[in-house]
């Protein structure tokens, strides 16, 4: 069943926090999102400008309009602004009795702007007693237990236990405001603490993390998960969403997270625009410009290249492809899935065949030129030293650069072009498809890799690009 989840919260017209973030999160977890607006907030990634609060009676009307018609599987409460609105929500909870209620006791935005009247804090404490899960950040937790803001994990856990006991509820303790390499959270009850580890991302795109986490918890709980299992899933997703936030390029302050970072890879017209490989490709632009400009490539394209230079190149390429095929087979051995293994194995067979064809065009195989040897040594060293992720990143430029060049140079392939056959091989739809599939694999590998591994992948990709350039400059 699709969980029907209602967010009762304020707005963020830039889409990063509040109701907009809640609806995106609910959708990202496969739920059906609904929204009742408590307050209209003129805010952006830099801060809050003003707040407009419709009359409490209108909040009642919105709430009843939903519950009179729709079965609600879970409710997430966000910005409730002031005592009159909190009273309306409490009365409605009594009437509608939704099975799961998660309260994000929103008080102050990251920008420092107040989103809750100071006199509403008592009402929020009372509300904590009526909900199934409370998700305060550390400043909010301190207000709820009437203590100083915790600066250590142990201090935060103690406060979360105090709140869980006093309100007889479950507390999701969020460690985002602590310092250190990890950003752990925990499910805390009066007598248990269940931590969930998470790595801290160095970024400023954290706007709306609290809103999103609480909506994810509501949706996952409505799907039947325990609080602990829900937190494990929500945190993994949230960390990825934080990591991909900067790619959205939204706003000049604390930008939003990317709620749909997992989905984006499957949207055909968007596929890859924000992916790891797309960034690596963009970063390699200066090298690719030099490949395009190099004499060998230009004259290969316009057909004016001397035949003996082309033959020399083919001989080197035959040497390269023979060992490249071995490295593709090795990537197959390291592959994480049967599909990936099959892809690299097929690529290896194709490279063996390509090397054989090249050899038929040259009278005898030459010694490897320094550029050929250096490129192959780099690939072997990457395989030996840096493992699967870096190896597939290092293997990708050969696919991608040739597909790109083949497609563009083949456009110049008039009838009788002396290198027309060669150009058409790399513009062949099957080769372009293989290059696209290699990209998708590398993106999947990069998405699953921790940040330090991705850095190693980027270095491996960049080095291969430079070796490709040297290879084209050698003849
Ligand atoms: N830089 C970060 N890297 C990874 N996770 C983070 C980071 N900042 C916050 N989080 C996570 O985002 C969620 C919200 O955390 P927090 O910042 O404490 O709350 P709020 O957004 O309500 O102020 C928590 O799961 C926290 O661990
Ligand atoms: C309307 C609205 N609700 C809540 C917040 C605070 O969101 P949060 O997830 O805590 O993220 P930050 O804004 O603190 O980064 C908000 N800004 N607006």
Automatic annotation (TrEMBL):
Keywords: Kinase, Thiamine biosynthesis, Transferase. Residues 295-472 form the Thiaminase-2/PQQC domain. Signal peptide: none annotated. It catalyses: 4-amino-5-hydroxymethyl-2-methylpyrimidine + ATP = 4-amino-2-methyl-5-(phosphooxymethyl)pyrimidine + ADP + H(+); 4-amino-2-methyl-5-(phosphooxymethyl)pyrimidine + ATP = 4-amino-2-methyl-5-(diphosphooxymethyl)pyrimidine + ADP. InterPro entries: Haem_Oase-like_multi-hlx (IPR016084), HMP/HMP-P_kinase_dom (IPR004399), PM/HMP-P_kinase-1 (IPR013749), Ribokinase-like (IPR029056), Thiaminase-2/PQQC (IPR004305). Catalyzes the phosphorylation of hydroxymethylpyrimidine phosphate (HMP-P) to HMP-PP, and of HMP to HMP-P. This is Bifunctional hydroxymethylpyrimidine kinase/phosphomethylpyrimidine kinase.
